[in-house]
Amino acid sequence: MKRLLIVALLVSGSAACSSTSMVQHDITLDEFSIVARSSTITGGATTIDVHNAGEFGHTVVIADRQGNVVRSTNIIGPGADEAVQIALAPGEYEITCRLVIETESGLIDHYERGMHTVVTVEG
Fold this sequence. Notes:
Mean pLDDT is 83; it is low at 1-20. The chain is mainly beta and 123 residues long. It has strands at residues 5-6, 14-17, 20-30, 33-36, 40-42, 44-52, 61-64, 69-72, 81-88, 91-96, 100-103, 106-109, 116-122. The strands form 3 sheets. Strands 1, 2, 3, 4, 6 and 9 form a 6-stranded mixed β-sheet that branches.
């Protein structure tokens, strides 16, 4: 199981990381959904374990409610996992997949197909 250190967010659980306490969260990507274990998380240093359960590659883009991108990942392949570390201030964040692919039938926009969710980060 390949683990990369990048970025994303969600759910509860805890893990220690050197002298800084980290809160761990999980999200699952699929066609065409992003499922978070919880829609509310605690702010600060956070690890998000991302699993792509789908048959296509997906990205994770985290943006604040003003649309400013806080973090993003490269394409996460089918069946792949990534561990994303990020420090988040309190507020609302949208987690999306921003891939648009062209098929014989036309364009498929993952966001328009439902790959987005909102999480609230509490202080």
